[in-house]
Amino acid sequence: MTARTPLLPLAICAAIMLLDGIDLAAMPLALPHVAAEWSVAPERLGFVLSAVLIGLGAGAFLLAPYGDKYGRRVMIVSGLGLLAVSTLGTALSGSITALFVWRFATGLGLGICLPNVTAMTAEIAPRHFRAGAMTAISCAVPVGGLLAGLIAPVLVERWGWHSLFVGPAILTGLLVLAALLWLPSSQHAQDAPPVTRAPMLAPLTRPYWRASAVFIGLYTTNALVLYLLSSWLPAILPDVGFTLADAARLTAFTQAGGLIGGLGLAFFLDRGKTVATLLAAYAAAIAALVAIGFVAPQFWVWAAAMVVVGLGSSGTHLALMAVGASFYPPAMLSTAIGLAVAVARVGAVAGPLVGAALLGWGFDVQQFLLAATVPLALCALGVLLVPTVRKPAEP
After folding, report:
1. Fewer CB within 10 Å, N- or C-terminus of the chain?
2. From its phi and psi, is residue 127 left (phi > 0), alpha (psi between -120 and 50) or beta?
3. What does the alpha-carbon distance between residue 160 and residue 95 come to, in Å, rounded to a whole number?
4. Helix or strand or coil: residue 7?
5. Prediction pTM value
6. Distant-in-sequence, close-in-space partners of 288: CB < 8 Å, separation ≥ 6
7. d(Cα 324, Cα 365) in Å, to the nearest integer?
């Protein structure tokens, strides 16, 4: 490591997060086309949407910690290799079972990469720019989702839904080479402290368990509504008259709202306006979901509403990590965030399944959007508990 800013390694970390965002968004965008090609109801593919999230949780909880033992670069390269193979396998799938297996493997790769890329960013970024670097690189995930929504209509029109996975598979393979050549060897593995019996449960002990309940509950519920919307919007929006291409673009606007919202919310959170900021974001998203249910399907009107929905779902998801960080001393922060991410997989997996159930019960688009306001309202109630747990959790 040199004293100068490691721009190339940070750029590679950002590229990995960008491709991860594209990968997470690709299956929901491909789902309507897969369902049409295979002549199956979209709700039958709900488990396929959840497969990547199940794999992500398993990879993050079971495999990513080996980065502490063997080094960040080793695990990042391994995860990228698995991602390249499984993403190509997704493109070549010919059955729902194969699609589920390959998406689960994709989730494992993502679960290996995301925590280790975040850890490497913290390790190599200059101390005076560490928080900014981590925030910017985390924002690469929604940027990837935004790009996926914008380019998906063009790719699908020219080469079919398979192209949504072939291109990322090739780019991921190139990132394997870049990571091998230019990511630094982590020194963290040599200095890692001994592993305790159950380090992931430390945030559940006194005096932190109340703070953890609020933080993890908020993060998990937010994940549910985030993945409920991102997974099913491309499939349900054509039911009110939008084309598949416009449905993909509208979904991309939610990603844009999340990106802008995450950075904007962080500005106010840094100034101590946590409760008011988050409540305003959730209230705006609820109002937007209710309003568009009663507005004729005009593209730019719905696009504006989707930006607000993204701010109150995806944007708050980014901001909640910063809120949770204020609950714990530095020595417990990584453990607390890791536990929150692992538990939030339950909400992320449940989101697509809840959407499939709503459609199976015959919910139309308006009813579906109204149902999405319920978990957002629960998040707003959880925000009211933040002031009650912040003080006891301070070291």
Report:
1. C
2. alpha
3. 16
4. helix
5. 0.70
6. 305, 306, 308, 309, 312
7. 34
What is d(CA 358, CA 395) in angstroms, rounded to the nearest whole number? 44
CA-closest candidate to residue 313, choices 365, 357, 272, 262: 262
Give 184's DSSP letter. P
Alpha carbon separation from 97 to 28, 44, 293 (Å, rounded): 17, 11, 35
Tokens of 384: 């009211």
Alpha carbon 176 to its chain's center: 22
Residues 25 and 162: their CA atoms lie apart, in Å, by 14
Q: How would you classify residue 117: left for phi > 0, otherwise alpha for psi between -120 and 50, otherwise beta?
A: alpha
Tens digits of pLDDT across the chain (395 residues): 444 558 899 999 999 999 988 988 888 889 889 999 998 888 788 788 889 878 988 887 778 777 767 777 998 999 999 999 999 999 999 899 999 999 999 999 998 888 788 777 777 877 656 655 666 777 888 788 878 888 888 888 899 999 999 999 999 999 999 999 999 875 544 444 444 455 566 678 888 889 989 989 999 999 999 989 988 998 899 998 899 889 988 988 998 888 888 778 877 877 778 899 999 999 999 999 999 878 888 899 999 999 999 999 988 888 787 777 677 665 565 566 667 777 888 898 899 899 999 999 999 999 999 999 999 999 999 999 999 886 444 44
Which residue's structure tokens are 């928080």?
Answer: 131
Q: Count of CB atoms within 10 A of residue 322's CB? A: 16
